[in-house]
Structure formats: C-alpha cells, structure tokens
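Researcher: Go.
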Amino acid sequence: GVMSRAFERAGRYLPMMRGIFRDQGLPLDLINLAYIESTFNYRAYSRAKASGIWQFIKSTGNRYGMKVSYWLDERRDPEKSTRAAAAYLKELYEMFHSWPLALAAYNPGEARIQRPIERQGTTDFWSLRLPKETQLFVPAFMAITIIAKDPERYGFTAPAEEPWEVERVSVPGAIELRAIARAVGVPSDVIRDLNPALMRGVTPVNSSEHEVYLPPGTKEILL
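Model: Structure:
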C-alpha cells in the first residue's frame, strides 16, 4: 500500500526531476532514491529530523542553499530539494568514485562511510561492515529501480506523469496563501500544495519579498 501511493505521487514530479538530473549529467535511475527516502511525500519528516521528498537534515539543507526557519522549510520544496539532491549526489560520487558508496553515504552522511573505509581498508561496498540500515539502503534502491522500470510486472500501476508546470512570482512578506488563492480564483489548498515550504500558510513576515509558485495562467491575474 505504501509503495502504491508512492507510485501515485511520483508522476507529478518525475518529469521535473529527470530534467534536473539530466542537466547535472547524473544517471536518471538515481531519481528512484526518492521512493526509498520519502515515497515522494513532501511532508515526510523522520526521527532524525530530515524533511521533504529528499529527506535533508537542516545542516545539509543549509549547505545546499535551502532556508529553514519558523516560517519556511525549503527542504519541502520539490524543485529546490531536487536540485540540492542532484548536487549532493554528484558531490558524493566525486568523493567516492562509486555509486553504491555514494548512495550509502546519502543515507547517514559521508563521514559515516569514509570512516569504515579507512578502518576496514576496502572501498567495496559489499565488503564493508556498516550499520544495518545503511547496508540495506543500497539493495533497497536497486530493488525499487528494478520495479520502477516495469511496475506492472510487480503488481503496481505505473505513475501517471504530468509536466511540472508552475508560474513564479515574487510577493511581499506576510502575504497569506489563502489571499493569493482568492485573488487568482483557485481553491486555497491548490496554492498551499504548490508551496509546501511555507510552513504557516503565509510568506515569511521578515522578508521583503518571497517567490511563490502559482498554477499556469494565474501570474498576470495576481500581478
């Protein structure tokens, strides 16, 4: 059931994610990591306080330019977090020169892979002794990658893909999303769903301006 819902959610984001990963020169199969991390749920929040589809902790999110505050958690922004995930995976591969090691490092952080490599004297992922969660992380990624190539074979329905189409507009701080929704004539939950990074349903009150996502064809109405 969990994975069926993941396939339902994924279709909305897959085209956008492929474009970003392609631009970074990354293997497109890496997008399947999002199934393992969060089942494509931007609301996902872990015991380790990792947030969003790509499950960034605050410090790593900040490292890749995502703001986290009382008003805002850009780790929940599907597009910004995907750009951060692509940059992080690219950096991990440049560090380890191995996709299994890079993927393993994505789970607990690079230091927790580098130290076992140095202690155990091997760069073969399958030979390393690692915490169980990290050891199972790479096989889980491989399994979902196999499933994602032919979901029907494994009893799932393939994602119904839709293009990631949004319009972007900068508005002042302290603007309620429901006021934006009223202005452009769409239900407020549509605007909230497009802007999950806004934790309080309002643009950050201490910002002079904040970029919000709108449905296609509504930017000029709002302006």
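Model: The longest strand covers residues 167-171.
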